[in-house]
Structures are given as C-alpha cells and as structure tokens.
Design brief:
By secondary structure, the protein is an all-alpha fold. Helix content is 79%, strand content 0%.
Length: 210
Amino acid sequence: MHNLLLHIVQQDTVHAKWLNTLSYMENAGARKISACEHPTKVNLIQLKHAAEEHRHAYYLKKQIGKLDLTICETYEDDELLASRCTKQYLHQLDIKSCRYLKDAFDLQAIELKHAAYLFVTYAIEVRADELYPVYQDALDQSKSKVMVKSIILEEEGHLEEMIAQLQSFSPDWEMYAKDIQAIEQVLHEEWMNAIAQELNQDVRRVQSIG
C-alpha cells in the first residue's frame, strides 16, 4: 500500500483524485452513520462521529487546493479513482455485514441497523487507523503540502469509542468483529487492486501516445 500511495502523491492530478476519493468515502461513511440512527435514541457519540466524518470529507476535498488544481469539485466518476469499486466499497460492506449479523444475533430492523453501525464502523476505523498513517508517511517523504495528521488523531479517538460501545453490545464482540474485518479485508484489497490497475492503464495509455 505504501508504494502505491507514494506513486499517487507524486502526481498532482492523480493525488487530487485520491483526496477526492477519500473525501467521498468519508462522506459516504457519515451518511451511513446517520442512516443507522434510531428515530429517537441517538447518543452524543453517534452525532459526534457523523459530524466528524462529514468534516473529514470537507477537509480532504479542501486539501486539493494545496495542489494548485481546480478539479474534483464533485464526486462524479471521472473525478474519483476506481469509481465503481469506490462507490461499492461501503455499500457492499454494509450489506454483507448485515447478512452476517442478522444470522449471528437474530436481529431485525432498527436493532440490526444499530449492530451494523457498531461493527461496520469499527472495521472502517481499524482500516483508517492503518491507511492514514501510511498516507501521511508518503506525504512526508514527498514533502507534500497536504496533511492528514488531524484526521489520524480523530480516527484513533473514534476507534476507542467504537470499542467501548461494542463491549457494551456483546461480551464476545471481538469474535464477531474479526469476521466483519475479514469481509472488509477482501473489499479493501479489491479497492486497492482496482486503483493500481486503473493507474497502470493510464501509464500504458500515455506511453502508447508518446
């Protein structure tokens, strides 16, 4: 992953699309958190989490300006990396996790949504805890003006909050969380491979023109 991110940050246009892709993912995550809310029983942590994910989406898109580019103003397919896989990532994770949790806990409707919020968000926070530091390292190596250190700190806090909520949800939460993480791992690998393949195709296209 580090080599791929190092390759991405060294090309401003590609880097802008990467930032926009991360912004899309954060925004999609915030929307899913809100969609999982109980009609009345919404706690402070859930509101805080959704608000911060929206802010991350804004912050990442704002960073594009540091590359002196005026692109990626929306989330249209041509402004994202591996757009199809990017847009399916969280959706597929949510669907597959709900199927698993429904069978594991015999949950329905609102209760299933809440369980999905806990386990899916946990898996995503574990992933963010891995991805953003590697990305920041690539930024440091490239002496980029772009920074994601503030996001790293907040994502660490989110992870601690999700663990606390999962501990209250089930004493055996780690066993179920590992299964959800396995689902996420497959989707993450597909996403990374799709991005790498798209970038390789772009390189070959430029070489053929040259």
